[in-house]
Amino acid sequence: MVSRVIPVDPFDLVIFGGTGDLARRKILPGLYRRYCSGQMEDNSRIIGAARSEHETAEFRQMIADAIAEFDPKSGSPEQLEGFLERLEYVQVDALGEAGWKELAALMGENRVRAFYFSVAPSLFGALAERLHAHGIADSETRIVVEKPFGKDLASAKALNAALAEHFDESQIYRIDHYLGKETVQNLMAVRFGNMLFEPLWNSQYIDHIQITVAETVGVDGRGEYYDRSGAMRDMVQNHLMQLLCLTAMEPPAKFDPDAVRDEKLKVIRALNAVPLEDVVRGQYLADGKKPGYLEHAGDPDSKTESFIALRVEVSNWRWAGTPFYMRTGKRLRARSSEIAVVFKETPHSIFGEEAGRHRNVLTIRLQPNEGMDLFVTIKEPGPGGMRLVDVPLDMTFAEALGPEAEDVPDAYERLIMDVIRGNQTLFMRGDEVEAAWAWADPLIASWENRGDKPVPYETGSTGPEEALAMMHREGRRWRDIRA
């Protein structure tokens, strides 16, 4: 299978925060891979902008070092040299006037202009204002903003309002890298491109759905920041919410940005309020080698969660009575992100009790090994009667698609190219963000008002025992967390 690379129109991409960690680790190495694939026209340019003082030559060397560190296998020395020639740098003060005339002078004519706000959200409004004040932005300009999109509904509305003063909603690209993952998009292809699944995609046939995002790392080095957000604000309200929406949404009329996002919005608005008995919050303990969450947060009385598990219901005809279980946490057993669609048992087993209980499970793996498994029940080979066993029909991309799978763009590559194309399908709309906060805020307020403190859990475990009990009381169990 040969993947097609379709070049994008010539562009100027300005990365505010161009010397920051995200730019060095993800954005610029990703753009380099797109350059090596032939997707960027030769006259496209990437301009780093930040407060620090650098010459363009220094900036190019900084990015060369970053590519060597984070993506050493891509490209040739000639390709690297060609990519670096397309880089420029300008020192800009987001809150002042310094550097804006110089930035304006670098802008080319008759090409797409995109601006990546890889900075703190508090600077979004100031950047948007100055882009217009200095005549750098026009009606075709696109801006990319990173999460967090606020810390509650009020701040999300204020952030949306600040951007809306200077840019139309069609120009704003709120990036969530989970939506750029190949498997997440394949979820839509599997659902809406195959007759096999969509007729079964409802409460009549599905027992429950599990969404897991597990991490082995702690909050080392950013404990003070993380302690102001926690797993609910940092992961559930955005990443896991988006995965839930794509799993639960109705088929859109067409694969169109607003049609897809309209259906996602309907899911968020259909979510029931979550009672506290359907929530488990935890904090990881020290393991003898590494400090625990409280040490990383620098607050022995912290009530912020590093783990959360929730039971969520979508109140509509398709999903009535089918629970969605979501969990995410730090310092868990393995790094693993997956969506598991657990189908109901057959209404009657002709094989007797000795055959055991069996269910079909469709597993969509987001990381580390992107792909899908469909577990089906078959007879165990050999004599001795009708013994049943569940086996996976495995579609690991690297195996099913061969060497081409290794060249599939990562999330940031794909999403940035979508910005240049003007395709907002995989980006969040302002009303989506606000609806998600409107659902999350009352739940956060309920445990804060009650003064609940998260329960401790062991580093390297699957999370608190209370999360297991939440499933067991309904006769279900979490899937194992494994790499």
UniProtKB/TrEMBL annotation:
NADP keyword on record: yes
Organism: Pseudooceanicola antarcticus
NADP listed as a keyword: yes
Superkingdom of origin: Bacteria
Domain Glucose-6-phosphate dehydrogenase C-terminal: from-to ranges: 188-479
Limits of the Glucose-6-phosphate dehydrogenase NAD-binding domain: 14-186
Positions bound to NADP(+): G17, G18, T19, G20, D21, L22, A23, R24, R51, K147
Catalytic activity: D-glucose 6-phosphate + NADP(+) = 6-phospho-D-glucono-1,5-lactone + NADPH + H(+)
Function: Catalyzes the oxidation of glucose 6-phosphate to 6-phosphogluconolactone.
Molecular-function annotations in GO: glucose-6-phosphate dehydrogenase activity; NADP binding
Family label: Belongs to the glucose-6-phosphate dehydrogenase family.
Entry's transmembrane regions: none
Lineage: Bacteria, Pseudomonadati, Pseudomonadota, Alphaproteobacteria, Rhodobacterales
Gene: zwf
The enzyme's E.C. designation: 1.1.1.49
The protein's enzyme class: oxidoreductase
One Gene Ontology cellular component: cytosol
InterPro entries per the UniProt record, alphabetical: G6P_DH, G6P_DH_AS, G6P_DH_C, G6P_DH_NAD-bd, NAD(P)-bd_dom_sf
Protein name per its UniProtKB record: Glucose-6-phosphate 1-dehydrogenase
Gene3D superfamilies membership: Dihydrodipicolinate Reductase, domain 2, NAD(P)-binding Rossmann-like Domain
Positions bound to substrate: H177, K181, E215, D234, K330
Xref: PANTHER family: GLUCOSE-6-PHOSPHATE 1-DEHYDROGENASE, GLUCOSE-6-PHOSPHATE 1-DEHYDROGENASE G6PD
One Gene Ontology term from the biological process aspect of the record: glucose metabolic process
Pathway: Carbohydrate degradation; pentose phosphate pathway; D-ribulose 5-phosphate from D-glucose 6-phosphate (oxidative stage): step 1/3
Keywords from the UniProt entry: Carbohydrate metabolism, Glucose metabolism, NADP, Oxidoreductase
Residues forming the catalytic site: H239 (proton acceptor)
